[in-house]
Design brief:
- This protein has one helix at residues 3-6, and strands spanning 12-14, 19-20, 28-34, 40-42, 57-61, 65-74, 85-91, 97-102, 117-127, 133-141.
- It has one domain (9-141).
- Strand 2 and strand 3 (28-34) form a beta hairpin.
- The chain is mainly beta.
Length: 144
Amino acid sequence: MSASATTAPRGRRPIVPFLRLPDEGEPYLVGQRCKPCGAVYLGARRACSRCTAEGQFEEIPLSRKGTVWVWSIVHQSMPGVPVPYVVGVVDLPEGVSVRCNLIDVEPDPTKLRFGMPVEMTTGVSQQDRDGNDVIAFYFRPSRG
């Protein structure tokens, strides 16, 4: 039997637990909505910080569009990470803020602005030790 016949195809896995990679359709982020009061959070929760309800959450898809609340240009990073690059906090319509890298925009203060409309995209960040693609999410200036 050849090596290629015994090698399983590479898979994909999200870099964070709140990123969904459906077989059909575009990847998206998920939030947790408190059933009693409607507060929305990014990531798993045990209790709601607004109404203190415990364990009463439902998973909801979050918008792929948002606005830049704050940004920074990174000039020093870990060895092997190309600089400069742009990081930011993006506010989503559901009331959730997401820390992320901003791509497809020059790391130049004259090209960035607070309140800039952005949209989510994904890409392969790295490969894990099993050879699976690790998929990360990014935001870029809205195209339409």
